[in-house]
Amino acid sequence: MDQRDMEKYSSAVTLSDMEIFIFPELLYSLLLANIMSPVIWQWREDPWFEKIDRLTPYRRILRLKQFIMDNYDFNLDLETWGLTTKETELSRFKQFMDEVKISSSNALFGYEGDQYYFSVDIRKHFGLDKYNSKIIPYWKTETIEAMEAFKLKKGYQKGAGECVSLSTLYGAALFIICGIPLEKIYLMATPLHSQNFVDVKEGILTNNRRIVTKNMWFNGTELTAKAQRAMRNEQVTIISHNSGYLHVVYPEATMDQKAYALFAKKLKRFLVTELNSEILYNFLRQESHLQKCFQIEHVYNGRKRYIGAEKAYAYEHTSSFRLNDSSRDNLFNEIDEYEFFTEPLADRISLNHIHDYFKNNRVDFDDKGSLDRLVHELECNHIKKNEILRTLFEFCHLTPKLPNPERKHFTESQTIKLTSDMSREDIIAYLDSIRETNVTADLAFYAYRDFSKANWTPFIKAALERNPVSTAGSENLSETEVIAVLEKMPNQSIYAGPRVAQPDEVWNFERGDGLEKAICLANILKKRNRELKIDILLEKNFVYIKYAGKTVQWPSHKDLSGNIKIA
Fold first, then answer.
1. pLDDT tens digits, residue range 490-528?
2. Domain residue spans in the chain?
3. I want to staple 160 with a disulfide (CB 3.0 to 4.6 A). Which of 75, 144, 248, 551 is the partner?
4. Using an 8 Å Cβ cutoff, are 284 and 292 in contact?
């Protein structure tokens, strides 16, 4: 491999967020690695998914969502995968992308998103404020095996992963468990987030562990508002698909142009809704400062009574009933009688009147006359008309910041064709057969950590350069004590067969095959003495690590033979 390929292929092993940004093929490679993994295929045997094939695609996705909610947590901390520096990473990537472009597009190199992210102080939000601005985290994307292994860490009851891990997990599970065709799954990355758009019904967005339907997108709840943050405030930097990818910086796009056009059309349609009384109620749920402008009329025992909108919405927080659906009367029955008035509240707009208005009038944001008539109905002394209109429009219409296809040169690439009738073994064989002509498929075997089907050098490069947790965690231990700690760990790998964990996975999850322990020890020793020469000799059942006239032996069950020489 030349130097450029070595960086890319070693990045497929460490899979940090910044590496995926520089090498966009890696996003889909991780999804393919998860599809090849036996873990998600084993879910099919879980009673939770029994007879799932009898459900509609949408119901299958709901069932999958609950499974992921029950079994995985969102995890994003600074300790799991350690820290690096901007200088180190910029030096690595300068041959691939200009520093200014990296800084303006990637969250770890200065990007803070739109005004929202400035206002919340993004470095403080992620706990980076306790370090100087040159320190950045290795936010590594976890494979499904690493996500599962979090159950082994102290304090964790479930598996865990960051947003890219969860999006690629969802992508693989949608295909394996729900039978959603790959061409209907689009992976999207922004500088601070990763999520998927799934072309089912009106569309579904996966967002960390949850999913968001179109109805949910416009329900005005706090949970949905948080789910909208990336789409509302950030540029979409990568769209990844089985036909290829589109990157905001690189001029060439490998994604099929028609597939991208279809994705953009359906995503934009998902993010727009017509304004009606239900949407207005949802809007007021989100824009709570406007609730003081409205009141609701309710007939009780044949008499009209009135309540301020802010009081009614307050009761929603502790109720399963909502103001804008058929359960409204049930909600009103839960409200204390003393909250109601017998006469209309002064200077308040009646939501009942607005409801009747929407029955007979369609609001078109492109029609000034339509807007003027609506403004007349929304006359209020507490708020400026233009503010209500502006925020209403923003609530109903979101235009995603997608890469401009007119500035891209679309090149032909090989579409990855997997079908739901293929077995796991068929899929691995197929991906292996196209490696010479499809870089994404080739990189998938490195993300999959398969030593039997990959060049070992990128793996060792990644192990010795980007695993700071094991070296930091052992810095106060003597060489003998480090060996004793590794010796004491269960001789069990988190990866099955000839697949190999990185040193920090061994250290974090406190277990490893003998080969993995040997590579972890090599990482720690090289950190202490860069001039040290190390040989790792693999035999069928044992691994020997030799250095400075010493030999350490551990059993290995990876069924691998060979010699790793670290100069």
1. 999 999 999 999 999 999 999 999 999 999 999 999 999
2. 3-272+401-445, 277-396, 449-566
3. 75
4. no
